[in-house]
Amino acid sequence: MEKLSIGKMAALNQVSVQTLRLYDQMGILAPIEVNQETGYRYYDIKQSGQLDMIRYMKASGMTLKEIRQVFENRDYALLNDVLNRRMEEIDRKIEAMILQKKAVKRMIDSYDRYLKSPRDGILTLEYIGERKLYPQRTEQNFYELGLEAYENMLKDLKKEMKAHDVSEFYYYNAGTTIARDDFIQGRCVSDQIFVFVDQDCTSRYLQAVPAGMFACIYCDDFDKEAGYIRELHQFIRKNQMEVTGDYICEVLTELPIIQSRKREMFLRLQVPVRVEGSVMTGKL
Prior knowledge:
- With 284 residues, the protein is of the alpha+beta class.
- The chain has helices spanning 6-13, 17-26, 48-59, 64-73, 76-116, 142-145, 147-163, 180-184, 225-238; strands at 3-5, 33-34, 41-44, 123-128, 131-137, 175-178, 192-197, 207-209, 212-219, 242-243, 247-255, 264-274.
- Strands 4, 5, 6, 7, 8, 9, 10, 11 and 12 form a 9-stranded antiparallel beta sheet that branches. The protein has a 3-stranded antiparallel beta sheet with strand order 1-3-2.
């Protein structure tokens, strides 16, 4: 049997000398001989099999402590239990990463829409596909109280989302609604805040926004919303449209470059409508 120095054993197995020393200290791979005078460690080439197993177990996510426990107990049931726990942990991480990827995609889409959207104050008639939203009723009318109330509503919304197992990754681009009858009567009364969620979100607390035509106006400041709602009214009446659902204030994107102490947002104010005949679009 050829005795291999620690350096040669490390080189043959493409690991560092420090790694072999650590494995020795932890009792998971001891050298076959240690020179008492020099302290030199020597290994047998056949120990490469155990070293490969250690590296494979590490690659599966096992800790060195868990590996040592398996080796010390020679317990395959313990090994299987450790690996099953690791599999569950990996599944949780994958799920979290999938949600994180969706959040990144939502932000990319959001800024892409912002860059390609009409300018502030432009009126349009648009077809928008079916969407899902997670709503929360509020006891206060945001339009009477302003942005401070909106910020408090957002915090309550986030708590409710967590309580109902709706991922916080959807907590982006929150909006508000006005009931159809209130909008028609020109009343700015909002008792609901919401976030849009992906189509594959399955919470039982979701509501659907049907696909259809929407009269829209783009807005770069919440303070302009009330005035733009009046412009939507005029646009709808002028073009003889019928309001078929609730008004939606959708935050297309939140802008990271803050020029004031309030949120910088770009909004798409929209109302579902039924259209008869030709429709003009543009700023009134």
